[in-house]
Amino acid sequence: SSAMPQKRNAFLLEHVRAKAGAAIGAWTAAAATMRATPFTNSIEVGTEAVAAVWPGLRAVLEGTVLARALVGGGRPVPERMLARAEDGFVGATALANRLVRQGIPFRTAHEVVGGAVRRAVGRGAVRLAAEHLPAELSDTEISLPALVAEQRFGGGPGAFDPVFDSAYADLTGHADWLRAVREAQDAADRELAAGLAALTGSRTRSPGDGGVR
Fold this sequence. Notes:
The chain has helices at about 10-35, 45-70, 80-85, 90-100, 105-120, 145-150, 160-200. With about 210 residues, the protein is mainly α. Helix 1 packs antiparallel against helix 2 (about 45-70) and helix 4 (about 90-100) packs antiparallel against helix 5.
């Protein structure tokens, strides 16, 4: 919500996300305090660990109340959402992130893109002015379909199943290759043993029979 000057969504969403972090921190503190205690009737569990729980529960309650106030009466209107996405410089943050990936510090990227947004808003424009940005990073590159595709998994590494299936297929392929190599090696060993036996006139006995004589 605070990333770019044109953003108008409620900054309370930042508080909601931060409350989740506070709850996780409280759980971590309580779990670490109780770890390896010999019994539950101890100061670590009954006093110190419990003391860490209450702030976490309070954070959960506050985050839930804030989230309910924000979305409880909301109803998606696709047409309005699309219009606001097209006219609201949605790609500005993605543009700043792209500058960061090219090695520009985020603060500098934020100032460059944020300044362009402020100037565009002041002119009543709905798109960034290309002359205020690096030539290779014009706003035309940040199309809504491309932006949606980039955010499909929330900025994470992507869906688990396709990655797992690909890795499992690679593993299976390597296992098949290794099996074929071992079978070929066994066949070569047998052929070598037979050749040696033919050359020396000896016979190869199984390990249970005492080996070769």
